[in-house]
Specification:
This protein has 8 helices and 5 strands, in the order αααβαβααβαββα. With about 190 residues, it is α/β, with parallel strands linked by helices. Strands 1-3-2-4-5 form a 5-stranded mixed sheet.
Length: about 190
């Protein structure tokens, strides 16, 4: 990889070579006369201007991320998400919320529910959803195993996703299978 100083030396040598070529062309007699020399001179001048810019662009592209701004470096990094850590009883979820001071996301589901399975496969596996879920304590409640929880929250459709404070007080809910984009929007 070349340094900016090396590019400057190459550029300087290229200018000297191009200047010699121009001098030779201007000194020679051509059948086309001065018009052809002027066009050739403009063409070479355009090359002289373009080469340093292209050289800088190639040099910049080959720099390690440390030389890029944080925004540029961040844009090049793939989204790294951790899988959602689920609690499977309300008591476990409330205990974790009390310790971490985080709000809750409560996903009430059943084993026979197609939309519930779809959300597990598509929504909860999405990296953006997984990143958002790190700000919450995630609780998955099987409504057939814990009907008292479904009854407490008045759940009548599956899945139902409830956003609640750390004490379990409901703030917002979404009924039915929701996409990753809708989940992220609802979590804000």
């Amino acid at each position: 990889m070349k340094t900016p100083e090396e590019f400057a030396q190459i550029e300087s040598a290229q200018r000297a070579t191009d200047a010699e070529i121009l001098a030779q062309l201007n000194g020679e007699k051509h059948e086309n006369g001065n018009g052809a020399n002027a066009i050739l001179g403009l063409l070479l001048a355009g090359i002289l201007v373009t080469l340093p810019v292209l050289g800088f662009m190639v040099w910049r592209k080959n720099q390690p991320p440390a030389m890029l701004s944080q925004a540029q470096a961040g844009a090049q990094q793939p989204l790294q998400a951790r899988p959602i850590v689920w609690y499977y009883t309300m008591q476990e979820g409330l205990n974790a919320a009390a310790l971490t001071k985080k709000p809750l996301i409560i996903n009430v589901y059943t084993n026979w529910c197609g939309a519930c399975k779809w959300m597990d496969a598509n929504t909860f596996s999405d990296p953006f959803v997984q990143n958002v879920a790190q700000n919450y304590i995630a609780v998955k409640i099987d409504a057939e195993r814990f009907p008292e929880v479904a009854q407490h929250y008045g759940v009548r459709a599956y899945p139902t996703t409830i956003w609640a404070d750390g004490n379990g007080v409901e703030r917002f809910r979404e009924r039915g299978g929701i996409s990753a984009a809708k989940f992220v929007r609802s979590s804000q």
